[in-house]
Every structure is written in C-alpha cells, then in structure tokens.
Please model this.
Amino acid sequence: MKKKFFVAVLALLVVGSGITFAQEKRWSFGPKIGANITSISNIDAQSWRGGVNVGAFAMYRYNDYLGFQADALFSMMGTDFKEGANLRLNYISIPILAKLYLYKTLNLELGPQIGFKVFDQYNMGDNTSVTDHDMYNTMDVGFVAGLGYEFNLIGLNFMTEARYVAGFTNPIKSEYNNGKNNKNQMVQLSLGWIF
Model:
C-alpha cells in the first residue's frame, strides 16, 4: 500500500511540476542557423564576404521585459579582396546577451561576444593559399547589438534575429598589419527553433 501511495504522490509531483513549467516556461533551448556578411576594417581594396553561422542557444525569460541569451556558434568570417583574393577566418563565437523586450516577443539584444579562431586561410587568387598562419590572433572580442523576434508557426516556436557585431580586438597581429587598427565587422541573420 505504501508503495502505491508513494508512486501516486511521485506521479502527482511530476505532472504538477510539468504544468508549472509549461505555465512559466522561463528556459528555452534550440538550434540556430543563418548567414553572415563580414568584413575587416582598414584593409585596402576589399569587399564584404558571405558565410554561415550554425550552433545552439539557451535563453532565459526573466519577466515580461527582460531576458538573457547565450549562443555557441560556428561562424564564418573574413573578407574578400577585389583582385580575387580572400581571407577566411572561422570562429567559435559565444555571445552573452541581455534581451530587452520592447513589445510582446520583439526584443533588443545587447552584449559582448568572444570568439575563438578555429581556422584561417588566405587565398591569393591564383589557386595558391596559406592556411594556419601565425599572423592571426586566436581570440576575437566584440560587441553585439540586434533585434530578435519570437513567433509560432504551424505549432512550432521559432525566433529570428538580425545582429551587428563590431570587433574590439585586431584579428591580425600588429607585426603583420603595418600598425593598422583592423577590426572584424559582421551583419548576422539567423533563425532558431525554440524548444
């Protein structure tokens, strides 16, 4: 009898906590994918470069007006040069953002981002390239500002984001860039699936 009572109480606690969680639903997780448009400042004869970002996010909604979000993203960055050369710099980026809800699920995202370089390749435009060169710094620090919107479609929850990321640190080591102040710049668009 005690065993049946214990199982019944345990079942009620599990169901009750599930209902409470469903009502509050403060934590959300999910995968993300999107596109990057990137450049590096103060480099001559360059243009913006396209790339992708893919990863996951964790989001906490504190109240109707404030939330927080952290991402872990593989992010393709770099720049293209007009003569056909290009520079590819790929990072694992971790933005940690405050989310200020402006109206319902429309939110302003602000916060720092740290990136760890996992790949570099300079393609010279003549079918030759240099990979894993020591002229690039292994860490990139920047600031993120953007807009996010959470919505429901066909019974599933999604979010879309548009961000601008401004670098604070030089991706190219000072001894290789003639003392120029180079910074990563990125426009990032992404779509996430909220669980």
Remarks:
- The beta strands are 27-40, 46-47, 49-61, 66-81, 86-103, 106-123, 129-131, 139-153, 156-167, 184-194.
